[in-house]
Amino acid sequence: MPTYPDLFHPDGVAAMRRRIDALTPTSRPQWGTMSVSAMLAHVNVAYEMVYTTKHPRPNPIMRWVLKTIAKQGVVGPAAYPHNSPTAPAFRITDARDFTVERDRLLRYLEQVAGEGRPRFEGRESLSFGPLTADEWNTLFAKHLDHHLQQFGV
Prior knowledge:
mainly alpha
């Protein structure tokens, strides 16, 4: 099982930042069809769900399904397979600006690290209910790692 950087620690954020900084507006995916700008916007959705009210909470039936069926795949240690299906909220269908999305992602990484592990312990997820800080770290780091690998960094 892969291990993921601790995004509550400056070293983990620095490791991800180095990889993000290796992306360019012309980076091409090794699999899938997303542009690099769309990928960055896609990754930002996980943070939007924590820090904005842009995304509604799923209805109770959908939340039960997500907690029962999808949660372990998202917050568990196993890597995502290539070309995995994505939830509708994570589908980016419009053009995005590379610099805007990259900078937004870097700010979110700093915000998570700045708030720290205690702030995320037991924090409510829109889809999965309360998560441990370790589960939040896996959710953020695994998703970002998957898409950085997709773009070869």
